[in-house]
Each structure stands twice: as C-alpha cells, then as structure tokens.
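User: I'm curious what two different proteins look like when written out as structure tokens. Can you demonstrate?

Assistant: Sure. I'll show them one after the other, since each token string lines up with its own sequence. Here's the first protein:
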Amino acid sequence: MVSLAVYFILLSLYLILNVILTVAFLTLFERKVLASIQKRKGPNWTGFLGILQPLADALKLILKENPVPQNASSVLFFGGPLILLILSLSAWFVIPFNNNTVVADINIGILYVFMVSSLNTLNIIVAGWSSNSRYAFLGALRSIAQVIAYEVVIGIIIINIIVLSGSLNFLKIVWAQKDL
C-alpha cells in the first residue's frame, strides 16, 4: 500500500512539474513570436536561443518585492492566490496522459474540472476583496464576469462531448474516440 502512495505522489509531482515547465516554455515561445511580429529582438540573451529565459523570469518573480496594501488582510491577500494555484494544478489530476494513464481516475472527471474552475472564481473575489481597495475589488468582479462567460461557452461545448461519449470519465471519453 505504501508503494501505491509513493507512486501517486511521484506521478503528481511529475504532472505538476510538467505543467509548470510547459507554461514557462510556451510563454517563452509567445515572447519570441511577439518579438518577431513586432520586428524587435526577443528573449535571446539568456542561454542558447533564450532557453534560460523562463528560469530568469521565475527568479525575478521570486526575488521581486511584494507590496502589500496597508489595510489588507494578510492571510486572505496571500492565501487567495495560493489556493487559486493549488486548485488550478489539481484540475490536471483527472486529465489522462495517454490512453491508460491518469493520476486520479474518477467517474465524474468533467464535473470535477468544472467544480475546480468554479471555486477559482471565489478565490479571485477573495484576492480582490482582501486588499481593502474598491478598485481591486471591481477588477476582481470584472475578472469573474469574464471567467463565467468563458465557462458558459466551454460548458456548452463539453455537453456535446458528454452526449457523444456517454460518460463523464475522461478515460472513457478518450477510449470513445478510438473508433473515429
């Protein structure tokens, strides 16, 4: 039983590391494309072809001074974005790597992803409200309106996939596509 727990932890860490590295290098790719479109020099100064740029960006983000508003609630101000990050990464646990490999194979995987994305809207409100500034709170409300608008459209698209595959389980949806 211990080996199963260790396997789950290693698989989870592998997944989280892959997601974070993928986002870092997709950001690098986006910056290079934007530099090419704007006909300017892009992030090619750190390492070979700018490969070390995501590491430099992460180091800059970690060492950056974090200003905290004077009347802010510290626990909510720092806890809201942290919970948002944890929930966003936990949504990846139900998405399959290939035909048979998934960290958590649950029968309601799609509903789990919708639940996590809905909880993220609450964390956006908490992050905006905790600064004790009406402008930050209004910005959070605008962000939530945008997220809800995207969720409605994605929900309508996902309903079609659920109807065609006959399941809410991501692995069964993948298996339903093999005959197409």
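Here's a second, unrelated protein for contrast:
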Amino acid sequence: MAELPRFDDLPEVPGLDLRHGWEVFGPDDRCGTINLLDPRRVLAAAGLVRTGEVLSLDLPLDLPNPPLFGRQPYRHDVFALSRNEMDDRLDGFHLQGSTQWDALGHVRCREHGFWGGRTTNPTSEANDLGIEHWAEHGIVGRGVLLDVAGWATAAGRPFDPLARTEITAADLQTVLDHEGTRLEPGDIVCLRTGWVGGYKTLDADQRVAYAGDPVFAGLRADEDTARFLWDAHVAALVCDNPAVEVVPGDAAVGSLHRRLIPLLGLALGEMFDFEALASRCRDGGRWTFMFVAVPLKVPGAIGSPGNAVAIL
C-alpha cells in the first residue's frame, strides 16, 4: 500500500475546519483504516505469538447492566425444538450494547455525510457502510496495549476512570515511551483507562444510577488526537471505556467520533476488557500481541459485538 499522506496534508471539508481522508483508499472505499490490515501485517502479527495463550477481550453481553445511553436490555429465551433438541434466541438485542465495534455508518459529519461523503441515511436505505465489510475482511493484526491507567499508577498520578479525565495525544506518547513501545502502521491500538475494573466495583444500585448519567475518562476530542492517530496510521482504536472520548464532552472542543469515523474512516471499538491482558503484559514486559476479531456479518449493521481475542 502506498504511503499515506500526513494529517496536515489532508483536504478540509468545505465550510468546516475539519480534515478528511475520503480519497485515500479510493472513491468507493467501504473499510476505511481496516484496509491497512493487509496479509503482510497479518503474517507479522502471527509472528508475535510466543505462548499461545488466548485471552478474551469481550465483556459478557449483559454488561453493562443496565445498558448505557438509553439502550434496553435484551431478552434471552431458551426453548425446546423437540424432545431432545434445545434452541435459543435474543430479542431486543442492541448490537452496540456491550463490547462493540462502531461501523463506518455509525456517525455522519452533518450534511457532508458519512465516510467517503456518502449522504444516504442508512435508516432509509443502505449506504454500503455496514459492519459486514469488516466481518468479511477480518480484523487481525498487531495489537498494542496502551495502559494509561497502569502508567498513571506507576507515575503516582491521580486517575479515576469513572471521573471526567481527559487523555491527550501527549499522554498517549508518554505511555508509549513508558512502555518502551513504538506504534507501527496498521497497529490496533488498545487503550486501557481502567473503566471495566472501575465499573465492576459498582453495586447494583450504583450501576442503575450510573446508567442514567455516565461519566468516564477518555480521549480529548481535539484535532491533536486525530492528528496523532492518523499520522501513526493505526488500523483501529479499541478502548475499554464506553465512548472512546471523554464523557461528558466539551462542545467547544468538538466530537472525536465525528473527527475519526466519517472523516478519517478509523475503526473504533468500545467497552473491550483489557484487565487480564494488562496483567499479562506487565508481567511479561511486552505490550504487543496478535489481535483477532470477527464482527458479526449482519448486512447493513451499524455495529457489532467485539468478538475479539488477544493471542500471546
């Protein structure tokens, strides 16, 4: 694949001070930065496997409970097909209710549209940005854990994943330096804020209250963050918090989802569980691994459960 342009060389959306990469992967592209996960990079990631240990990176589908952002809990029914055969089904299942991928059809940039400048609204007809394209491609590559929570603890820096704490582009570079790791094109960046561990400390009543007003640490939604991620040419950004960016956001800074999904085609994942992975990485002094995920192949879907593992 040809060398990608620098962020500051990307064109701006007419009328907005926002840069886009709509032509980088071709005028009809449907995969965005997942294109960077080519066979060469998959082979290189396979070479990272040392012990063969496999760690699930997904939360149970019924966490968070209650679901966040107004989503409803699903219903799971188990029933008999016959005397000796069982079956089951899910009703009211939100594909983005737990560990999840955000498809490129998830967020639009106002009237300028979705990734590639598509203006078709997927609630009326397909705009060809469903999650099935990533499912067909597969999301396999070199995972890099950026343990922000672990770095903060080691540095004696107060850090509460359930408080509004901004993580800047400079912080990301500091964490990489602390871990002795460098990003390479096509990496799948796994960002640990400690949110999963923090959420699990809440009791049932606290979880109900939290679902009505979630607050958590996350990335600052500014241009510096977008520039850092684009210029590193990462294939995906996968976080353990519920929205990648800090919540509540700041309208004066903007929306990181809008900067990254419709304009840069960056694959985002949320509510991934990196607690066990962080422990293994600290113990082994190695922050890279093989990352494998296969989203559900639901045509036209706006998202999917993560279906991800790390192979060490």
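A detail about the second structure: The CA atoms of residues 184 and 232 lie 7 Å apart.
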